[in-house]
Write a structure and sequence with these properties.
The structure is a single chain. With 320 residues, this protein is mostly helical. The chain folds into two domains: 1-156, no CATH class; 157-313, no CATH class. The chain is 63% helix and 0% strand. The protein has helices spanning 2-19, 21-44, 49-53, 57-68, 75-88, 103-114, 135-144, 158-167, 172-175, 189-205, 212-231, 239-243, 246-255, 266-286, 293-311. The protein is globular. The two termini are 36 Å apart.
Length: 320
């Protein structure tokens, strides 16, 4: 778990540089809340707090949830997300090793369904504004609900903008000509995704995560995107756009690779991850949300036991 945290550092630092203090504020608050709920649950279950906290799983959950949320989220929304992630998704099922669903994605989806407007209010990247909110302004918004006078507060993500503008019958070329988009994906976002990918490759190199999972998820999304791009290139973004987004890379290397809520066998992990990629693309293209990685992960979490049933090799001496 510590190695996973180390792998997340470069991408998170770049996110903070591009989107400001809100990223670090989310991270600090989510870590405090998740650790607090972890300690509370462990004490109620009469287990050793020291042993429970030594695995760093609560910190990883907090980190993944924090960087998935828009910067400058109100503190009480973070509290709700962390509560569902740690208490409901993890300890209601018996704690680490027993949770059928990815805790961070449960917290994210709860907030997305309950507060869809706030979950779309991302800051504009630093190259599109004169100045990012100061630390004082950030804390004012997070804790006191203060209103900023800059336009950056309500900027949509590239995926959200693409989905909305395509719904207004604009062509892909017209949409991607704005400053929000870079060479391959969203401006700034593609560099963040690159650093998260490097962190993920570091985990693959250390054999902490299996390489089949990120490859299968990226392939699942890439194949779907390729088919529709070839059919209607003016209305469907190319595979590179869908793959080189922070959501896809985070899902491939840090979320779908969860050893508890995923599949056990190599073949099962491939099926699981490819399903996440395909479902996420379908939601991006035709669903009600701009990104579908979280929903794809949770839906495939439901299917993981069935996939394992048919893909885990039989032990020697066990009847088929």
């Amino acid at each position: 778990m510590r190695q996973v945290l180390y792998a997340l550092i470069p991408g998170t630092l770049l996110m903070s540089w591009i989107f400001g203090w809100g990223v670090l504020t989310n991270l600090i608050l989510a870590t405090i809340f998740c650790l607090g709920f972890e300690i509370l649950a462990i004490k109620l279950r009469q287990r050793s707090v020291k042993i429970a906290l030594s695995d760093y799983s609560a910190v990883v959950t907090a980190w993944l949830l924090a960087i998935s949320l828009p910067p400058m989220m109100p503190w009480w929304m973070l509290l709700i997300g962390c509560c569902f992630a740690i208490i409901v998704a993890k300890h209601f099922y018996g704690g680490i090793g027993n949770n059928p669903f990815n805790p961070a994605m449960v917290g994210y989806v709860v907030l997305l369904i309950a507060y869809p407007l706030q979950m779309t209010q991302w800051l504009a990247p630093s190259h599109m504004v004169e100045a990012l909110p100061s630390l004082a302004n950030t804390l004012g918004v997070v804790f006191a609900g203060a209103d900023l006078t800059i336009d950056a507060v309500s900027m949509a993500t590239p995926l959200d903008t693409l989905k909305t503008e395509l719904g207004l019958s604009k062509t892909l070329g017209e949409i991607r000509s704005t400053a929000l988009f870079g060479t391959l994906a969203g401006a700034g976002w593609e560099w963040i995704a690159g650093l998260y990918a490097l962190g993920g490759l570091y985990l693959v190199y250390l054999k902490i995560i299996p390489w089949q999972t990120p490859v299968a998820l990226i392939a699942g999304m890439g194949v779907m995107a390729s088919v529709f791009t070839l059919a209607m290139p003016d209305h469907f973004a190319p595979p590179t756009f869908h793959i080189i987004t922070t959501g896809c890379i985070l899902g491939a290397f840090f979320i779908a690779t969860d050893p508890v809520s995923g599949c056990s066998s190599t073949k099962g992990r491939v099926i699981f991850a490819a399903g996440v990629g395909a479902i996420a693309y379908i939601i991006r293209g035709w669903g009600g949300y701009p990104d579908g990685i979280a929903f794809g992960v949770l839906l495939m979490n439901m299917a993981a036991p069935l996939i394992d049933h048919y893909t885990v090799p039989k032990a020697y001496g066990q009847s088929s």
